[in-house]
Amino acid sequence: MTDLHREAQAFLPLQAATFHILLALADEDRHGYAVIQDVAARTGGAIRLSPGTLYRSIQRMLEDGLIIEPRERPAPEEDDERRRYYRLTPLGALVAKAEARRLADLVRMARARGLAPERA
Which of 69, 77, 71 is nearest to 30 (CA)? Predict the structure, then answer.
């Protein structure tokens, strides 16, 4: 196990909001409101991050090195200069993958005890 993998393990378990933000940033840079929209859409509205929760989480994730604010921005005609964009770092991606593995293991254990449905 590399040092980066060990560092990723130290973040587990993640708070649900942190995991959802990492998932929202997994495929593209997003600004805060776009993260809120992605989480709501991906969860069918079951999870709605408040701006306070989002920005507290983002601040902590920036400090922890899980995400960064990239220098590159969208084309000016597609951008609002007031927006701050966020990008997953390699550490952030490893943390998200480690958390996904941890959750999959929990579901597997629950299935083995008859506490979770088998795959459809």
Answer: 69
